[in-house]
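Example S7 (structure tokens).
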């Protein structure tokens, strides 16, 4: 079993779409440990709706929080504290795609962040969405991962081609680029499958 942890350089950069593509490409299982907001129609449900294969299994969130905000704050509103030690990977013989919440340093409680959910054996997929400031945010994310000893890191760009941005990120980080997702008018099962077939050989 290989595990792929999908993180982003911030919020709303396309982690869920990327998770759907990787899940479809590998016919992998999917798990989002912490969901904040949209409990009844959250990211697990969105990914499930975009998958064509019949092999993927979708695991429940360990924490499903009611308020769409940083998990530590959402948990406080719900009257609980997120216990990172209670967040255990599902037992499966299949490949597993894990979707994070926001970026690496989004707090889960007073001492732990999303980064504490990633293990050294995970392949970390960093989703970099093109916007003013995205170079800095991408470099900071990758540097933090490297400082913590992570070796299996790849970048996936999200947004229409921006050559100078993509080139400088690739040159400075010196890590593999999985590819790029264009700004599509919509994402449905067919579009997800097209990207899955495009990235499959690189995973």
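Recovered sequence:
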């Amino acid at each position: 079993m290989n595990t792929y942890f999908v993180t982003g350089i911030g919020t709303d950069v396309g982690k869920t779409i990327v998770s759907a593509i990787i899940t479809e490409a590998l016919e992998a299982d999917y798990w989002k440990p912490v969901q904040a907001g949209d409990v009844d129609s959250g990211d697990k449900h969105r990914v499930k709706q975009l998958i064509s294969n019949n092999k993927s299994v979708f695991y429940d969130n360990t924490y499903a929080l009611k308020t769409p905000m940083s998990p530590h704050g959402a948990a406080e509103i719900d009257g609980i504290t997120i216990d990172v030690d209670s967040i255990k990977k599902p037992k499966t013989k299949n490949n597993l795609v894990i979707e994070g919440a926001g970026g690496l340093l989004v707090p889960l409680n007073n001492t732990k962040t999303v980064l504490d959910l990633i293990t050294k054996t995970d392949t970390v997929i960093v989703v970099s969405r093109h916007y003013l400031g995205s170079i800095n945010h991408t470099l900071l994310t990758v540097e933090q991962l490297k400082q913590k000893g992570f070796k299996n890191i790849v970048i996936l760009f999200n947004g229409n081609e921006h050559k100078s941005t993509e080139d400088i990120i690739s040159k400075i980080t010196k890590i593999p680029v999985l590819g790029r997702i264009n700004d599509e008018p919509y994402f449905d099962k067919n579009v997800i499958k097209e990207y899955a077939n495009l990235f499959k050989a690189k995973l």
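Notes on this example. The chain has a mean pLDDT of 96.
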